[in-house]
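Support request, please re-run this one:
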Amino acid sequence: MKTKLLILLAYFPLFAFAQNLVVNPSFEDLRAEENFTKCSYAKSIHNFNPVVKDWQGFRGQTPDIIVQFDSTECIYPKAFDGKAMIGLITYLPAFDRGTDKSFREVVQGKLKEPLQAGKTYYLQFWVSQSNRVADHHLRSVFWTDIKTKTLSTNNIGMVFSPYAFEESLDINKALSEQEIYPQFNVEQVIITEEGEWEKVSATITPNSAFQYFLIGNFYEPHYTQTNLSDEEMAALEESNQNVAYQYQIERRIAYYLIDDIYIGLTPPKEKNIAKALAQKKVYTFKAVNFKSGKYDLLPSSFQELDELSQFLMDNPSIRIEIGGHTDNVGKAVNNQVLSENRAKSARNYLLKKGISSDRINYKGYGEAQAVANNKTAAGRLKNRRVECKILK
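Re-run finished. Output below.
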């Protein structure tokens, strides 16, 4: 299920520079990997701050740095871009923890240079909800037989600041006491399927020279919307209040992965292939072209194939199929052979870029999988295509 995100822009009235100002925006720049355990949770900021360059967590919180490994046993899904991403708990009420304080995480990043007051900047990042990780988190903290209620939430936002907040702070308490609220916030509940990524984007116009920012949920649970209706939430809370023992309650939690954060004066370059494969597992090339009846790649094809090559290098565990398709002009047997040769040409280009042959299948479908009416020129054009899809 996909959700179109609605953005609240507060305090930042709008803007335009081609460079991403975020330092280490995809969390790929790591210090020594011996500081963390592969495919595991951070038990404290001491498992996060020493590992991720130019990012910082805060006292009492446990933000996760996740690096993608070639292991099917890892519960984390694949990063949106590259191999690394971060994970944050955005919702865990006090009652469900058995304490007097709710739990929600934020991390601090920094910019290469301060934002200029009055200029409009583009802001973008990618989020992915993971109920599987949320459930596993709670069971690892408490015990495996507890009841969990994984939720979707809104309120993933950003607080911009001219100075860095200290690691030793109880950051949510400090922000509340100083009455600092996010200048940017997602108002609508973010719902994604497991392993799918959703883009959050907006424009911001800062009123001061900000060089640091926090990202996470800055609101207590009673100010945070979930995918449960008011009636469902009331019924769950009433049920939890009436259990005989604390271990019998249904514990609520929301967990989101975040990747590829961008802030700059011009829009970020769209990573069309990475986006399509992350969301739909299939991509139809826009510019992989051939002369009529031929299967030699035209130069216009190279840019998209180079982008796919980079995606495969960034995601070494992924295998794909290149599929060739034709319209119904001519004999079906000839179209079948032509589509196969065109798919093979695209595959050979990727092999020359250093992608292993066992990661790329190719197949010709001929005219069998038309996506448009072959009776019109526009329809035939759509049917003459090359696609790539991720193999399970």
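The CA atoms of residues 47 and 274 lie 29 Å apart. The two ends are 20 Å apart (CA to CA).
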